[in-house]
Every structure is written in C-alpha cells, then in structure tokens.
Specification:
mainly alpha; flat
C-alpha cells in the first residue's frame, strides 16, 4: 500500500450509508495513531458530514436533531434522573 494521509488501508464507504461513517471513523483512528491533531479534527469534521448524510437519507433528520437529543441526555445525567 502506498502511504497518503493514512498509514493503514481503509475501505472506502458510500456516502449516506453506514460504511461511510465507518470509513471516517477508521480514518480518525489512524490520525490519532499518527499524533496529528489537525488531521484528527479534519476527520472528526468528515465524520460529522458522514453522520449527517446518513441521518438525512435514512431518517430525514439533521445533526440539529441529534444535538437536541444529546442536550437532553446531558441534562438527564446532570440532574441524575431519567
């Protein structure tokens, strides 16, 4: 394998599917192993994009909807009750 940004071979996923989320996650893991913080952040951004396309295609919701649920979850843990 010829090295580019990543040192490990990562299968390409299809945008809007779980495979793209997995690809971006594996690229993030590889970036962490390389110790490149800027690349880690780029891959986290790409991961958000992959998640956004997946949720839009499969559930017709946006990242805003996921953030809303996350805020509720954080509130629940902060208050110590469900």
């Amino acid at each position: 394998m010829k090295e580019g940004y990543h040192l490990t071979e990562i299968p390409k996923g299809k945008l809007g599917t779980r495979s793209k989320i997995q690809e971006e996650y594996l690229e993030w893991v590889d970036s962490c192993k390389q110790g490149c913080k800027v690349m880690e952040l780029v891959e986290l951004s790409d991961l958000l994009g992959a998640i956004e396309h997946y949720t839009k295609n499969n559930y017709n919701i946006s990242l805003t909807d996921l953030v809303k649920m996350n805020n509720i979850t954080q509130r629940t843990f902060k208050n110590g009750r469900r």
